[in-house]
Design goal:
The complex is a heterodimer of chains A (about 270) and B (about 300). Chain A is mostly helical and about 270 residues long. Chain A is built from 14 helices and no strands. The two termini of chain A are about 30 Å apart. The chains are: A mainly alpha (about 270), B mainly alpha (about 300).
Chain lengths: ~270, ~300
Amino acid sequence: MMMSLSKKVTLYTLLIISALFVFLPVIFAFLMSFMNSQDAMMGKIIPSVWTLDNYVKAFERLPLLQFLLNSLIISLLIMIGQLIFSSLAAYAFVFLEFKGRDFLFYLFIGTMMIPFEASIIPNFQTIRGLNLIDTYPGLALPFLATAFGTFLLRQTFKQIPKELKEASEIAGIGHFKYYLTVVLPIAKTSLVTLAIYSFLSAWNMYLWPLLSTTNDTVRTVQIGLKQLQSQETVNQWGVVMAGAMVVAIPTMILLFLGQKKLQKGLAEGALK
Amino acid sequence: MNIEATMKAEHNQIQYEKVKKYQRKMDLLKGLLFLSPSILLFSIFVFYPMVRTVYLSFFLTNQAGATTLFVGLENYKDIFTSPIFMKSLTSTLLFVLYTVPGTVIISLLFAVIANEKLKGIGFFRMIYSSSMGISVAAASVFWMFLFHPSIGFFNKILVQLGLDKIGWLTDPEWALISVSISTIWMNIGFTFLILLGGLQSIDSHLYESADIDGAGYFYKLRRITIPMLSPSLFFVTTISVINAFQTFGQIDMLTKGGPVNETNLIVYSIYREAFVNYQYGTASAQAVVLFIIILVMTVIQFKLGERKVHYQ
């Protein structure tokens, strides 16, 4: 179907205005991260001289590389944990029939209604009791199981034809082997979606790392940014922005690469 | 049919039942095995903390969080007579009211225009979803600059227009609104992606037949797009409400609950009570209130949703 020229022009105008509206905060921050402090103080938008000083200073002032590494390790731990545990759970809900399955399924739904923020006090005490404050496991453990991930994968697993399972039973393939060699490869796309989503959420966590880290060896980059921001005085905006860019760019790239998958996967997992 | 054959058949039947029973037992065992990691983790980090929070809310505690004295409902009496907590509840409700419609409506507009088949549309989709990839901490830093009293973008525009500067984050009249604006921005990315996914799954035949009938753009929007999109809209509204009640990061970065507790949203209030004032009992009572609010919200939304939402 051809679109009329006037409709095209209207649409592009709307698209561009909205895009500017959304992306302006990022553009300002990006430009400011290359500014010297004078330009920032004067309230310039485009730097008169482009400089990398802010990035150098941000890395000098904080062990940003260590923070990035910490964030990476924790996010990978959470991502892998969620992939394994929720795919196992989803398999049970789809391919195994047993008494109490429905009850357990509702129990999983129930976990989505209990906000982590409301149960933060006992969780903090548990992790402290296990001596896991300031450790990677302490940061990752509470997030390894996910009802959302389980639903998302259950949705995909349900679409695998039943005949395949019957055939594999005749061939004498057990559940675990079927899960590993048939189900997981078929569900690759959904697994990637969940991987991206869980990595993004883990990388962007704020409250839990704030509570469960007290020193630089395990601190995540988000809390590092908070430190950077609270140390700064007004003439150091460039350094804070440089720090924010270092924090935001990895996940933005990941989001752009996985956007199509996320869009499809999230809609499916969330709605059916 | 001779007797032998009947007996054999019966015997087979019994064997079959036995095997089936055994199989069912094995399936239960295997099911629990597959589910055990999740069940274990949920028990330790979701269900136990829930029960423990309710328990703690009936006690006074020492600094380490150990219970010292049973006080019954005293903590609840305390928080509901505390002007600070009541203020926190009002602020939180206002915050939900400010952010949820804003997020959903703006994201819906973006999703509708980004669903057109145009050259370069992928680029625009990327931009609209971008805030999903930006953490609360980074986004807060961006907005802190925009709200900055002297060099911030908003005040510079006001000055250009010959208006007075506004203390976006320091003026009690504006602080909650400012935090809400930045929150809407942070939530647009995710909401947009879900709604776009919803739009793309609408059957294009519906539009084609509407075109044949000569239906206009807004007629189609009202009669096809919105009804068909209602499950997605319902979902993002629920998620947005729950997210709004759980807001913490931007408060900690932008206002620290101030000015005069104006932005002291409920999770921030819990955090402060527990980890700054070490009042675990009252903090737990607040957490129970948060839990009940979210539970009630979810139930109401599902009840409403069942009636209003059009599922394919």
